[in-house]
């Protein structure tokens, strides 16, 4: 251990020297303004003392919409206005099309197969995902999966309402729904049974908690990624815990691949006796027959991981906020129900093909996403020197777009802090390209926007059509009082679902 301490001290001294030399090398460049920093640490201490969204707002107010932070060894450019974003994109789109390849995440991200630098490999995977997962044709082929899973959700909420089980944890319900949809697309089978969960089955809840833990976004920061001399230390802390979770996750996904392979990769998902598309695993295994060097186990597992993380976490979080918004805005809830009643009537349940005729419902989701906490895009990293506005940006600079600041800019939005879904019915394109950046920017923009919107609209629309949402409570804290302008996370949001009398007969036939 003494040897390691001496080695850490030596590396620290070398880093200070390198930091000073680099500072002298680029000090003649016109870098963006930056708060006072501490050697080695940079600005980490300023982000720890204050919630990050508030810290970024404070920096923006003092230094302008383009400023530079130093997070250990990684310089980070922050953009916090539409004008600043337009000065960077699309001009520097290719330059900022890389994601930082953080050492702690190499194994967790399967050798960065999906987060690979912009190039031939990434373009190949992007083309595959756009054509084989998120294209309009594929979304139509998977529509029955979404319809069936939504009906299962409605059916069991309805049944449980007559068993006295009226209060339901919304996050649990939406996680179950989203995981089942993603799993049927990925592997062709449902993973959870609604009835068991809603009857408070500890076994099923344990399965869900385990799956949520395995497929949660990597939100923690490993200090070893920003302070290389601490890599040996951080490896034995949080990183080792994540690797243990990764081992379980890897075994889970390997079992899915093995099962698909044992079925000769020819089985297709069957919904109500009708044949739909091959699963994502089936398609990738088929492609591996002719391109084994590309469609490796790492690429297949990286794709499954992406579907089960991106396809569940952000979707569930947004739907939870939508329900909370609807509870605090009964007029919006009624407007959405009126729209559904006018387009779908009460003789059947809403389905995937109805969504294009329900613009107000989609506006509710878009407005919720605009106002929801977070809104900060994933990091990018510059692959070469470039210019943003009047500033020089060195190669290897991380990019962080403060989406929350943009989404609440009074110069772009009328009454920006007000929940007003109808604003998305109005065309305001003349105000700029990057007004709403919920799903990202440029070549790395999320390709699954269409799928996510369909899942959320169908799920929320079904609840609005079929149930009255009478009450919501935090854990023994009385009636729900939401303040969506604050960044807190909803916790244990419970809803009382009461079947709507006009739809009783239709739901009972499910």
UniProtKB/TrEMBL annotation:
Gene3D superfamilies: Cytochrome P450. Its cofactor is heme. One of its GO terms (molecular function) is monooxygenase activity. Pfam families: p450. InterPro entries: Cyt_P450, Cyt_P450_CS, Cyt_P450_E_grp-I, Cyt_P450_sf, Plant_Cytochrome_P450_Monoox. It is found in: Membrane. Keywords: Heme, Iron, Membrane, Metal-binding, Monooxygenase, Oxidoreductase, Transmembrane, Transmembrane helix. The keyword Membrane applies. GO terms for cellular component: membrane. It is a single-pass membrane protein. Heme binds at residue 446. Belongs to the cytochrome P450 family. This is Cytochrome P450.
